[in-house]
Specification:
It is a single chain. The chain is an alpha/beta fold and 330 residues long. The protein has 2 domains: 185 residues, 3-Layer(aba) Sandwich (Isopropylmalate Dehydrogenase), CATH 3.40.718.10; 130 residues, Isopropylmalate Dehydrogenase, CATH 3.40.718.10. The chain is 42% helix and 20% strand. The chain is built from 11 helices and 12 strands. The strands form 2 sheets. Strands 2-1-3-12-11-4-5-10-8-9 form a 10-stranded mixed sheet, with helices on both faces. The chain has a two-stranded antiparallel ribbon with strand order 6-7. The longest helix is centred in the middle third of the chain and has 17 residues. 48% of the residues are buried. Bound molecules: 1,4-dihydronicotinamide adenine dinucleotide and magnesium ion. The site of magnesium ion has 2 residues, from α8.
Length: 330
């Protein structure tokens, strides 16, 4: 029995969460759900977007499923990443059948440092304009590189690539690159290399199959993750994991999509795949593969899918179909 905190949030976040929990019922794993509030709707009622009770519920759980917040997203999800020290942002770039992906056989992951770099937010106005600090610490670089190598090892991936711009950012990215190679010494069997971020952006389009696990700093990771999402088509399909020392938070990359909210038209795949990442995090790998395979069957079938995938099914109809495929597996 796993203790899971659940934050449906706003808009389609609530709908894709309901759909996903419906499917998780059919797995051979027991979950003890603890529901918690956060987001715009909660803020309208109470004046605060992320109550301390919610943080406590998340801290006391083994993993958290998060739907989406609306305008308060920065005060909710960014705050949670900081408060829980979720220093890894993991984004798979994987092609699924029946989707508008640009390449058919992509399967790599981006491991983005989630706590520092330019996103530390130390900016100030100067006489001439404005200036921002780019913070790269040894500690944060070491733990993110170590995570990337451990993840590669655990998931039987053969290669880790560090992405940086150390030719220009000699000290900050230079340090990141240096630490990457130092951490790599503990993984002599792993193939490794490093690339400049600008070249990487091009190779995503020209030779994406060259990547396996990418580890990179916060800003580059943010940009490359969205480029990766573009390679495998559509926000409705892209999951993510935020991982810390003792906590994992799993969420679709999309937001509350107000235009779709309340209509039952949102694609539940990104939330379902976030649950797949959670199952892998909990070391429930067999169940993770079962859930992913059930979704793949529905995507490949192309019939009971939502409008963004060319079908006309509702969120719940698609979820029901995934659940049926799951139950049909032995
Ligand atoms: P969004 O991801 O909510 O929606 C953008 C567009 O992508 C939608 O209009 C829709 O066409 C499509 N889309 C997204 N998810 C889909 C799904 N599951 N199925 C089908 N189509 C889907 O991004 P947007 O419009 O920029 O932001 C809307 C709100 O969400 C804002 O208030 C923003 O602050 C918030 N947001 C929250 C995030 C979070 O909670 N992590 C992340 C991004 C945005
Ligand atoms: Mg982003």
């Amino acid at each position: 029995m796993y203790k899971i905190s659940v934050i449906p949030g706003d808009g389609i976040g609530k709908e894709v969460m309901e759909a996903t929990l419906h499917i998780l019922d059919a797995l051979d794993v027991e979950f003890d759900y603890h529901f918690a509030d956060a987001g715009d709707e909660y803020m309208e009622k109470t004046g605060i977007p992320l109550p301390p009770e919610t943080l406590d519920i998340v801290k006391n759980s083994q993993a958290c499923l998060f739907g989406a917040a609306g305008e308060s997203a920065a005060d909710v999800i960014v705050k949670m990443r900081q408060e829980l020290d979720l220093y890894v942002n993991l984004r798979p770039v994987k092609s699924y059948p029946g989707t508008k992906c640009l390449f058919d056989n992509l399967d790599f992951v981006i491991v983005r440092e989630n706590t520092e770099g330019l996103y530390i937010g130390r900016e100030e106005y100067t006489e001439d304009g404005a200036i921002a600090q780019n913070v790269v610490t040894r500690k944060a670089s070491e733990r993110i590189c170590k995570f990337a190598f451990e993840y590669a090892k655990k998931t039987n991936r053969g290669k880790v690539t560090a992405v940086h711009k150390a030719n220009v950012l000699k000290k900050t990215d230079g340090l990141f690159k240096e630490i990457f190679y130092k951490v790599a010494e503990d993984y002599p069997d792993m193939e490794l290399d490093d690339r400049y971020v600008d070249a990487t952006a091009m190779f995503f389009i020209t030779k994406p199959e060259m990547f396996d696990v990418i580890v990179t700093t916060n800003l580059f990771g943010d940009i490359l993750s969205d480029e990766g999402a573009g390679l495998v088509g559509g926000l409705g399909l892209i999951p993510s994991a935020n991982i810390g020392e003792s906590q994992g938070l799993f969420e679709p990359v999309h937001g509350s999509a107000p235009r779709h909210a309340g209509k039952g038209t949102a694609n539940p795949s990104a939330m379902i795949l976030s649950a797949v990442l959670m199952l892998d995090y909990l070391e429930e790998h067999d169940e993770a593969r079962r859930l992913e395979d059930a979704l793949i069957k529905v995507l490949a079938g192309g019939k009971v899918v939502t409008a963004d995938l060319g079908g006309s099914a509702s969120t719940m109809e698609m979820a029901d179909e995934v659940k049926r495929k799951l139950e049909a597996q032995i």
